UniProtKB/TrEMBL annotation, chains A, B:
Binds 2 heme groups. Residues 327-337 have a biased composition (Basic and acidic residues). Pfam families: CCP_MauG (PF03150), Cytochrom_C (PF00034). GO terms for cellular component: periplasmic space. Keywords: Electron transport, Heme, Iron, Metal-binding, Oxidoreductase, Periplasm, Peroxidase, Signal, Transport. Heme c 2 binds at C210, C213, H214, M285. SUPFAM superfamilies: Cytochrome c. The lineage of its organism: Bacteria, Pseudomonadati, Pseudomonadota, Betaproteobacteria, Burkholderiales. This is Cytochrome-c peroxidase. Heme c 1 binds at C66, C69, H70, H86. InterPro entries: Cyt_c-like_dom, Cyt_c-like_dom_sf, Cytochrome_c_Peroxidase/MauG, Di-haem_cyt_c_peroxidsae, MauG/Cytc_peroxidase.
Length: 337, 337
């Protein structure tokens, strides 16, 4: 390794290694492991979760669904710096991809939700996002015969509650994995899966220390790290990261390391969405996290490697949502408060 | 027929009959004919059109796609009184369903677009809807290698233009038909496809004159008629209908008769979206168009019949959109003008 690691970086790298036992388990000793295909154990719950995922009636306006900001046609993201919420609210932070999110150590950039189920309830009730309440969402669902029947079939209860809603959403999200990227094929031994240029890019990525944080099955997502380890990260975005959850000053500007799976599709990058392109993101990361200025050639090679992390996207048949009944409260997109 | 037709209604009925030769051609002499399945002649163009349909990059914000207001999970509509557009603009009129829209005599409530191709360019450039321009939309598409290749394959040209975009969108929309509703099965001779209650509802619908306007393959969509024939329709909605296109005073409050196919899914009803339920819509229509007050029993039977018009919804695999390149202009959802 030619890179001079700063002590903080090394510490971060070691933490990552310790919390990522997969590192040592790879077939060819690489710090990244292939994504396994999703195992669907409860297809009825997954199907119900898919309906909820695409149902804008979970928002006050009847217009915003989970898929609005985590669009499964666009890498599970909205490709916006920060998202658009109820009443065109400008979101505070970049929407992370839902793809492979089951592999994250926790959910949200600051990790304030322990898992997908806990996360799923957040946006529904966030006044800047779907602007609904759990109570209203559940009332809506209970008023729809098609949902009543489907929830009953899945959960064996007569009444729908928010716990069932978030369980079903999480079950669906767990299926949103992207196996068989070209890089995974290479990891599994297919030497022809990558070009020399891409493999050079991977070696630069690995040997310059990017893998200190971006490792494991999701190439990230498994630790919190400081944004601006070597050099401060300049941004107008007020988010302070993990400190909002732990209250610990040491966690200020610590954010969950994003997965790099499908990173070609999940632009723009960083918690503030400030980097429009992979080239820019690689340049900034090298500089502020590793104290390294990649040459244009190195940068291009790393970008070429990153594009090999695009896996098979979930093939989804759009659900047909059960219609509202006469009793279903109608959405109020233009209500003044 | 027991209904006393008012002269205007009769005239309307006759016009409809004359412009709907299918009336006389039905296997069992009914004024409604079954929907044939879609014939796909150019699958590559349809597939491209599907991508465009779901692509929010055709809007200024990068957030609004065709599917936002004509949601194929919800009967091809948004189930809102009027739609939400760029910057949360309150739309002027209820979004009609895209399902079976190829059967319409013209597009939009006032028929200002002759066909689907002509319609498709409208919302993209409407400042209250997608708020983009055709030029910017085409620049965006031309900057994306995946689209470049796919357009070239379909249209055999090196450069993408708006004509190709609307051609592809229209080709996709033409596939969005909903055959094999229970009513169509009955029309084709399956006597068990309807319950007695539903069949009674159909006879009420037919024999009270609803079929004067709601006839043909789409159960509507094939003529313009005055909203408030017998009794004025009261609404705060300023739309004046067909007069906006023809300038003829006789066309004031003439609107395209909406299709009743899948009407169970396309609530709320009327050009102003004022009727939340089918019961309300049937009641209002009977009163203001036919001068008829349906009893609650009659109303319920007609509603039961209308629900048999729900056909097989298009089974769509969500497209995976080609990612933007470094050169693709980024959407500006929060730009001040």
């Amino acid at each position: 390794m030619k890179t001079t690691f700063r002590p903080l970086v090394l510490a971060a790298a070691l933490t990552a290694v310790i919390s990522t036992p997969t590192w040592a388990l790879q077939p060819n000793n690489e710090p990244i492991s292939p994504i396994p295909a999703a195992k669907v154990t409860n297809p009825a719950m997954v199907e119900l979760g898919k309906k909820l995922w695409f149902d804008p009636r979970l928002s006050k306006s009847g217009f915003i669904s989970c898929n609005s900001c985590h669009n499964l046609s666009m890498g599970g993201s909205d490709n916006l710096k920060t998202s658009i919420g109820h009443n065109w609210a400008e979101g505070p932070i970049n929407s992370p991809t839902v793809l492979n999110s089951s592999m994250n150590v926790a959910q949200f950039w600051d990790g304030r939700a322990a898992n997908l189920k806990e996360q799923a309830g957040g946006p529904i009730a966030n006044p800047m996002e779907m602007a609904f309440t759990h109570e209203l969402a559940v009332d809506m669902l209970n008023s729809i015969p098609g949902y009543q029947a489907e929830f009953k079939q899945v959960f064996k209860k007569d009444t729908i509650n928010i716990d069932q809603v978030t369980d079903a959403l999480a079950a669906f999200e767990e299926t949103l994995v992207t196996p068989n990227s070209r890089f995974d094929k290479w990891l599994k031994g297919d030497q022809k899966a990558l070009t020399k240029n891409e493999l050079d890019g991977y070696k630069l990525f690995r040997d310059n220390g990017c893998v200190a944080c971006h490792n494991g099955v999701a190439v990230g997502g498994n630790s919190f790290q400081r944004m601006g380890l070597v050099e401060p990260y300049k941004t107008d975005n007020p988010a302070e990261g993990r400190v909002a959850v732990t209250g610990a000053d040491a966690d200020r500007f610590n954010f969950k390391v994003p997965t790099l799976r499908n990173v070609e599709l999940t632009y723009p990058y960083f918690h503030d969405g400030a980097a429009d392109t992979l080239a820019e993101a690689v340049d900034t990361m090298g500089r502020i996290q590793l104290g390294k200025k990649f040459t244009p050639e190195e940068n291009a090679k790393i970008v070429a490697f990153l594009k090999t992390l695009t896996g098979e996207q979930p093939q989804l048949t759009m659900p047909i949502l059960p219609p509202s009944s006469d009793k279903t409260p109608r959405p109020e997109p233009f209500a003044k408060k």
